[in-house]
Specification:
The chain is of the alpha/beta class and 339 residues long. It is 43% helix and 12% strand. It has a single domain, classed as TIM Barrel (Alpha-Beta Barrel), CATH 3.20.20.70. It is globular and about 55 Å long. 47% of the residues are buried.
């Protein structure tokens, strides 16, 4: 899409300066009393530890296991860490509403106020609204609000969907550009995010673009007013030195100190140190996810079990670790996991 065509598209969508999208009914929420949204955004700087959701051998949600997995980090590695539950790695789309509510409550209980807790919400409009309200009742600090996972979203449609969910709660909201089916990130995201940032409880976004354009386009919002979250180490190598102040880490549950050191060097612009930590301390542990296709969550769960923490099976459509591969994952965990 050329710049001229993009500007015409955004103008038509009502997203260019001077043409904002109409607000949904309900208008802006008043944030809940306690920690301010600015304080919450600052508290969420650092490593975003995307936890898997543990299940029991019969496939039921392991509430005690999730509480214990969160408490492990609250007791040992709370500094510069945010706990994130029930997102894509946490098998969000396999949970019913009751399980989603129980997972949020377990994470809050495990964190005991020592780390912020973010909970993923996504799906059909009414389902996402109910998830958001459940998370707020559970005492979760903020939502990770995913883009609509269905249809062909337009700028107006995505904005309306996210605006309505964000104004239905008084907790913090992080916008997640990822919706699971698009090959490329749509050009409208910078302006959609800027419009949503007008809401007092929308305090940041997870960048699924893999680049720097979206973060840079938000100008004065970054980094003090709005938290730019890089997605994974590959993106963080570029985005942390450029103004992102948090990043998502799939193996932070297994190598939390390495992930924190990687983040600290990234925000300081120490690229050589970042790459050294990634190569020597993070990538060897991340290999549990890539032994075979489909091991993204299952490999981490087997590694957690090796360390005496809760893992369990995955739910369809995620794959299980083959019996022949379990010793390899156990060996990787034994050599590279931190305690």
């Amino acid at each position: 899409m050329t710049d001229t065509n993009r500007r015409q598209f955004l103008k038509t969508a009502g997203l260019l300066a001077g043409g904002t999208l109409a607000a949904s009914p309900g208008c802006s929420p008043t944030p809940a009393p306690g920690r301010s949204m600015e304080e919450l955004a600052r508290a969420c700087r650092g490593v975003h530890n995307f936890l898997t959701t543990p299940f029991l051998p019969d496939g039921a949600l392991d509430v005690e296991g999730l509480r214990g997995n969160v408490a492990y980090h609250a007791d040992r590695h709370p500094e510069d860490m945010t706990i994130v539950v029930t997102c894509n790695l946490g098998e969000l789309f396999s949970l019913d509403l009751g399980e989603h509510r129980a997972a949020g409550r377990a994470a809050v209980e495990g964190a005991r106020g020592r780390m912020p807790v973010i909970q993923g919400v996504a799906g059909g409009y009414q389902l996402t609204l109910e998830m958001a309200r459940n998370a707020e009742r559970a005492g979760v600090d903020a939502l990770m609000l995913f883009a609509p996972p269905y249809g062909s979203p337009t700028a107006r449609g995505v904005y309306e969907y996210m605006h309505r969910v964000a104004t239905a709660v008084r907790m913090g909201v992080f916008v997640n550009m990822w919706h699971g089916y698009a090959v490329a990130v749509e050009d409208y995201w910078p302006q959609v995010i800027r419009e949503l940032a007008r809401l007092p409880n929308v305090i940041g976004f997870q960048d699924a673009s893999g680049g720097l354009q979206v973060g840079h386009s938000l100008g004065e919002l970054i980094p003090d007013r709005f938290l730019w979250i890089a997605r994974g180490e590959g993106h963080a190598v570029k985005a942390l030195p450029a103004g992102a102040r948090a990043y998502t880490a799939a193996v932070a549950c297994l190598a939390p100190k390495a992930c924190r050191d990687f983040w600290k060097n990234g925000t300081a612009g120490n690229l050589s140190e970042m790459n050294e930590i990634l190569e020597q301390r993070i990538s060897p542990m991340a290999a549990v996810r890539s032994l075979r296709p489909g091991y993204s969550a299952a490999g981490i769960k087997v590694a957690l079990e090796t360390l005496g923490r809760a893992g369990g099976p995955t739910r369809p459509p995620m794959g299980q670790v083959a019996a022949a591969d379990r010793p390899r994952i156990e060996g990787l965990a034994g050599r590279h996991a931190e305690t």
